[in-house]
Write a structure and sequence with these properties.
The protein contains 8 helices and 18 strands. Helices cover 27% and strands 31% of the residues. It has 2 domains: 221 residues, 3-Layer(bba) Sandwich (FAD/NAD(P)-binding domain); 89 residues, Polyamine Oxidase, Chain A, domain 2, CATH 3.90.660. A hairpin with a 4-residue loop joins strand 10 and strand 11. It has a 5-stranded parallel beta sheet, covered by helices on one side. By secondary structure, it is an alpha/beta fold. It is globular, with a radius of gyration of 21 Å. Bound molecules: flavin-adenine dinucleotide.
C-alpha cells in the first residue's frame, strides 16, 4: 500500500521523494509535465548553456546538497558567494531524479483531493484515482488551490488569492570582443539582476560571455522588443550570438515584500488537515533577494522536512 503521494516534481517534490526513498517509505510522485524540474529548466544553443529559471544560488546552499550526490566539482563560484552549476541547474534535478526508485506518474495532473476514512484520495484529470496515508503538495499556490477546493475550501480560497510579480529572464550570449571593454551593470527599477559568466561549461570558450538578466516586466513586449530594450539599455550594439527570453508570470509573491505572507501561510497551514504538507517557493517565509540568487537550499530542506512530517503523521495514525 502506498504511504505517501508527492504532487509536483519540481525541486521541492524531488527532495521530498528522495528523503522518502532513503527511509524506505512507499511513495509515488505525480508530475504533470513529461520532465521533472518544474521552474528549473535549461537549454543549450551554440555552446551557451542558459537557465530559464533558477540559475544562481548562494554558496551556503551547496552545504545542504546531499554529499552522496558528489556535486562539489560541478559548482562554480561566479561572484561574491553566488554560484551556478557548471553545466546548468538541471544537474541538480538529475541528481535527485536519478535516485528515485519509487513510483512516478508523469504527464498526469492531479485535479482534486478528498478523504475516504483515514486515507486521502487523489483524483487525476484522466480519471485515475489513487489513495495515500499522507500527502505532500509541492506545487505553486494556484494549483494547490484547485486541488484543495473540496478538502480544505478555506485554505484553497486563501491560496487562490496569492498575487505575483512577473519576471522576464533574458539570456544573451556574446563574443567578448563585440562588447564594450567595461560592462555597465548598473541596475534600475526594471532590472532585477544581471549575472554574467565566461566559465567553460556555460559558454563555448573564454572568448565568450553569457549574460542572464532579470527584468521586472508586466508589459506585453514581445521577445524581440525585450531583447532590444535590454541591449539598448546597456549599449551593447552588436547582435548577440544567442538570445532567449523566458517569461515567468508568477515569479515572486507580492506579499512577500511586506511580510504579511508569513501570517497568511501560518493561517493556511492551520486550515489544512493533518497529514497534508504544502511546500515550494510559494510558501517560503523569506522575501526574495534582489540579486537573482534565490533559495534552492530552502526548497531542498522543506522537501526533506515534509517527508519527515509525513512519516511522523503515519506513525501516529497507526497507534
Ligand atoms: C525566473 C526565475 C528565476 C529564478 N531564479 C532562481 C535562482 O537564480 N536561484 C534560485 O535558487 N531560485 C531561482 N528561482 C526559484 C526557483 O526556480 C524555485 O525556487 C524552484 O525551482 C521551485 O521549485 P518547486 O519545486 O517549489 O516548484 P516548481 O518548480 O514550480 O515545481 C512544481 C511542479 O509541480 C508540477 N505541477 C503543477 N501542477 C500540477 C498538478 N496539478 N499535478 C501534478 N503536478 C503538477 C509542475 O509541473 C512543476 O514541475 C527562480 C524562479 C524563477 C521563476
Amino acid at each position: 500500500m502506498r504511504d505517501v503521494v508527492v504532487i509536483g516534481g519540481g525541486l521541492s517534490g524531488l527532495a521530498a521523494g528522495y528523503e522518502l526513498e532513503k527511509r524506505g517509505i512507499a511513495y509515488t510522485i505525480i508530475e504533470v509535465k513529461r520532465r521533472f524540474g518544474g521552474g528549473i529548466r535549461s537549454t543549450t544553443a551554440r555552446g551557451f548553456v542558459m537557465d530559464a529559471g533558477a540559475f544562481a544560488f548562494r554558496l551556503p546552499a551547496a552545504k545542504v546538497l546531499p554529499p552522496e550526490f558528489e556535486l562539489d566539482q560541478r559548482i562554480l563560484l561566479i561572484s561574491g558567494d553566488a554560484c551556478v552549476f557548471r553545466h546548468s541547474t538541471e544537474t541538480l534535478v538529475g541528481a535527485f531524479a536519478d535516485r528515485l526508485q519509487g513510483g512516478r506518474l508523469m504527464r498526469m495532473a492531479v485535479s482534486s483531493i478528498g478523504r475516504l476514512g483515514n486515507r486521502f484520495t487523489i483524483c487525476l484529470e484522466n480519471g485515475i484515482m489513487l489513495d495515500a496515508g499522507a500527502l505532500i503538495l509541492a506545487v505553486p499556490a494556484r494549483y494547490a488551490a484547485r486541488m484543495l477546493w473540496n478538502l480544505a475550501p478555506e485554505a484553497a480560497e486563501r491560496l487562490a488569492a496569492f498575487r505575483y510579480d512577473s519576471i522576464r529572464r533574458v539570456s544573451l550570449g556574446y563574443r567578448k570582443r563585440d562588447l564594450p571593454a567595461r560592462l555597465d551593470s548598473d541596475r534600475d527599477s526594471t532590472i532585477r539582476f544581471i549575472i554574467t559568466t565566461d566559465e567553460p561549461g556555460r559558454v563555448p570558450d573564454r572568448d565568450h560571455l553569457l549574460m542572464q538578466v532579470g527584468l521586472r516586466a508586466s508589459s506585453n513586449a514581445t521577445a524581440k522588443e525585450t531583447i532590444d530594450a535590454v541591449t539598448q539599455r546597456f549599449g551593447w550594439r552588436a547582435a548577440p550570438l544567442v538570445a532567449r527570453v523566458d517569461f515567468w508570470p508568477e515569479a515572486d509573491l507580492l506579499p512577500n515584500h511586506d511580510g504579511s505572507h508569513r501570517k497568511d501561510l501560518s493561517a493556511i497551514r492551520d486550515l489544512l488537515p493533518a497529514g497534508v504538507s504544502l511546500i515550494g517557493s510559494d510558501y517560503c517565509n523569506e522575501a526574495p533577494t534582489d540579486r537573482g540568487v534565490a533559495r534552492l537550499d530552502e526548497r531542498i530542506l522543506s522537501g526533506k522536512q515534509a517527508a519527515r512530517d509525513a512519516l511522523e503523521y503515519l506513525k501516529a495514525a497507526k497507534k
